[in-house]
Amino acid sequence: MIGIEPALLLSAAAFWPLALAMLCVLPKLGPRMITALPLAPLPALAAAIYAPSGTEFGLPWLLLDGGIRLDDTRAVFLGGAAILWTLAGLYAARYLQNDQRAAGFALFWNLVLAGNVGVFIAADAATFYVSFALVSLMAYPLVIHDRKPASLRAGAVYIVLAVIGEVALFAAFLMGSAAAGGSILIADIRDTLAGPGTDPLILWLLIAGLGIKAGLMPLHIWLPVAHPAAPVPASAVLSGAIVKAGIFGLLAFLPWGTTWPISGTTLALMGFAGLFIAALLGAAQSNPKTVLAYSTVSQMGLIMGVCGVALATGLPAAALLPILALYALHHGLTKGALFLGVGMASVWLRNSRPFFLLLMGALALSLAGLPLTAGALAKAAVKGPAGEIGAALIGFSALTSGLVLARLMFTLPSATPDKNPPPAMMFAFLALVIAALSAPFVVYGQILGTDPDPTADLAKKIVEAWPLGLAVILAAAAAAVGMQAPRMPEGDLLEPLRRTALLAMAAFHAMSDTKASSDISTETDDAPPALTNIERIQAAFADRAATAVAFALISGGLFFALI
Q1: Among residues 551, 523, 388, 372, which one has the least CA distance to residue 452?
Q2: Nearest residue to 179 via CA among 156, 200, 152
Q3: Would residue 506 count as lying in a domain?
Q4: Can you tell me where the transmembrane regions are (predicted)?
Q5: Rounded to an integer, what distance in angstroms lies between the CA atom of residue 548 and that of residue 551?
Q6: Quick check: helix, strand or coil at residue 285?
Q7: Whether the Cβ atoms of residue 487 and residue 153 lie closer than 8 Å to each other
Q8: pLDDT at 1
Q9: What pLDDT was estimated at residue 501?
Q10: Which residue of 27, 139, 498, 534 is surrounded by the most CB atoms within 10 Å?
């Protein structure tokens, strides 16, 4: 045990990045703060390792008498995020060394980190909400860092959905706190949700507000556009750590141990649908960062599908939270390493390119659940709370996961001649690869209480891994015959939604212009403006995708109005 009180160490985990963020605004010191990024998560890492479970620290002078605490599940999320933020920060310090906006990047990086840490240690809804808002809103400048048109478009999508999520979450906390007799403690709100007569609206506001951050389909559309737009190290923490803020929120607030058959089944259907659909959409992308973004949506769909099954069956928290924390740890570290690897692909030494591809392949196969890997260990554990059908779906999902990750390998950029990887970036990537492939084995016993045995029933596991083998065969066959993957736009639903918005605007203008045109003299040969807008409406309806989205929105509105 280090010579610092655990409570003080826990508070330093969140306040230290805020202190570094304040230094970033100093004119002379700000540009140099990019080199301090690896130092910002170190108190969080120390707290996750050394602070005992049950550590609490009250903050009576801040945020409505809130506080922070640490338990076993929180420690796993905090430790995994701290490792990723540390190594991604080391990568970013070299990656953005000569960037003109380095000071601004360091400022918002530290603010998002402080929020990310705060989410994992918040003991009350007020602290959680402020921390979650830091994560959501302060990540916007990271997404639009290069100020390119595509980044600004991605940022617009991101911030709109972030604000919608914040509003839903705020409403859920107000209603939950009122139902809990005015208490803002997370435990009290969760216990109230578990009681009889709870309004399901509170539950679904929580799922919507947190599900947007976690990439729950169809609320996922910010991920496939934000991840490619952000710089590589920011993409790594967006996918590996920031998305986990939404997952952790669901684990912290949902009423485990009570049966919610309709809500749980609905969440399970949404999650498992995202598990497969997102992977297939990712396999149709040409940008490796977009491929990884869809893979994240897919993997988070798996977690939320299991959460839905647990809600529907009344599974207690003790049987669910440690397992999902282990799975989230593996995904966060592995996906972070894959994003850093995408950034390393073009600068890796040509003569050692096979070694680099071997590392990326090992990460991809682990994420897909190849037997004897950390990913197989995590997936085997998560099949338990998923139930019989859920376990079968998770096993079969190795096919789509394998296809999307094979697509990643084919979209990696080629090595640039006469370029050598900077040592700091190479070290960060290699260290994160090692952490991703080994951390689940190291912490498995501490989390689940039993020692891992990846060789148990190995023959059975190999047979059950046939979907992954089929994915490898299909990918190899496609490469051999030169088959091209289909093309899908980033953000999938964004284009139909955009066309639907144009349809609504054209309809509005058509109605207003029709009234105005009735007052225009019929002597003129010019077509009234209404005709132009009516033609736009006809053209929009010719787009079946836009029509389908409009029909879905209208039907959904009528459905919720009726219930």
Answers
A1: 372
A2: 200
A3: no
A4: 6-26, 33-53, 73-93, 105-122, 128-144, 156-181, 201-223, 235-254, 260-281, 302-327, 356-377, 389-412, 424-445, 465-483, 545-562
A5: 5
A6: coil
A7: no
A8: 45
A9: 60
A10: 139
3-state secondary structure of 39: helix
Q: How confident is the model at residue 399 (pLDDT cuts 50, 70, 90)?
A: very high
Q: For residue 105, give both structure tokens.
A: 């990047």
pTM, rounded to two decimals: 0.86
| Nearest of 226, 238, 413, 239 to residue 335 by alpha carbon | 239
Tokens 């929120």 — which residue?
Answer: 249
| pLDDT tens string 243-266 | 999 999 999 999 999 999 999 999
Number of domains in the chain: 1
Residue 1 lies in a domain: no
Average pLDDT over residues 127-143: 92
Which amino acid is located at 177 in the chain?
A: S
Rounded to 5 degrees, what are φ and ψ at 442? -70, -45
User: 68: which strand partners?
Assistant: 57, 122
* Interior/surface letters 455-467, b for 16+ CB within 10 angstroms, e for the rest: eeeeeebeebbeb
Rg (CA), the chain: 24
Instruction: Let me know if residue 555 belongs to a domain.
Output: no
Residue 551 — very low, low, confident or very high, per pLDDT cuts 50/70/90? very low
Q: Report the alpha-carbon distance of residue 413 to residue 425 in Å, rounded.
A: 17
Count CA atoms within 13 Å of residue 292 on its CB side: 32
Place of tokens 């019989």: 388
* Secondary structure string (H, E, C) spanning 356-402: HHHHHHHHHHHHHCCCCCHHHHHHHHHCCCCHHHHHHHHHHHHHHHH
Give the tens place of pLDDT for each residue, 469-482: 898 898 888 888 87
Amino acid identity, position 267: L
Q: Residues near 258 by Cβ (< 8 Å), separated by ≥ 6?
A: 193, 194, 314
Question: Cβ distance 447 to 325 under 8 Å?
Answer: yes
What are the structure tokens assigned to 102, written together? 């380095």
Question: What is the share, in percent, of the chain residues with pLDDT greater than 90?
Answer: 52
Q: Mean pLDDT, the chain, as a whole number?
A: 84
Length of the chain as a residue count = 563
Using the 8-state DSSP alphabet, how is residue 284 labeled? Answer: T
Place of tokens 């963020």: 21
**What are residue 341's phi and psi, to 5 degrees?**
-65, -35
Q: What does the DSSP assignment read for 394-457?
A: HHHHHHHHHHHHHHHHHHSPPPPTT----HHHHHHHHHHHHHHHHHHHHHHHHHHSS---TTTT
